[in-house]
Design goal:
alpha+beta, Alpha-Beta Plaits, 3-stranded antiparallel sheet, 6 helices
Length: 161
């Protein structure tokens, strides 16, 4: 019976700690989703919200509870996008920087993703249109460069003679 009581107390403490129980002004947060925890830690660091990460738990002071909870909500509501082409991704990040839109660059599923928070669906579409236009202009430039180079190949010079 004594072991059952100890087990119950231990489980209760684990549940309280994992749900953000506060001891002396310190709060904790834990999720079994490792990728989620990595994103949250990256956002906390980017926003300069003080925390410690130990034993799979994020520990933070209750004085930054509101900022922590806002970061947690933000991670849950990101718009993830992947641009494989580094030039296109850089162009996208430049737009976000110019518009002062917060984003995270994440390594996920074997590639680099950008998680960002557009203020509206309309703004998101407009930014994507800019990026698509840029990608099309890069493709057109590459195509014209290939035509210029191919017209100067030895075989094409022979045909011109």
């Amino acid at each position: 019976m004594k072991n059952i009581k100890l087990l119950f107390v231990a489980l209760s403490l684990i549940i309280l700690v994992s749900c953000g129980f506060s001891i002396g002004g310190e709060r904790t947060y834990k999720s079994e989703d490792i990728e989620y925890m990595e994103r949250l830690i990256k956002l906390l660091a980017q926003r300069r919200i003080p925390y410690e990460y130990t034993d799979g738990m994020i520990r933070y002071q209750s004085s930054v509870k509101d900022e922590f909870e806002e970061a947690d909500r933000a991670i849950k509501s990101t718009t993830p996008v992947q641009f494989v082409d580094l030039d296109v991704r850089t162009y996208f990040h430049n737009i976000l920087d110019a518009e002062q839109i917060e984003y995270l660059e994440l390594d996920h599923d074997g590639g680099t993703w950008t998680a960002w928070w557009p203020e509206s669906e309309e703004r998101k579409v407009k930014i994507f249109e800019q990026v698509i236009d840029y990608k099309i202009s890069l493709s057109e430039k590459e195509a014209s460069d290939c035509e210029d180079e191919s017209s100067d190949t030895p075989s094409s010079r022979l045909l011109k003679l």
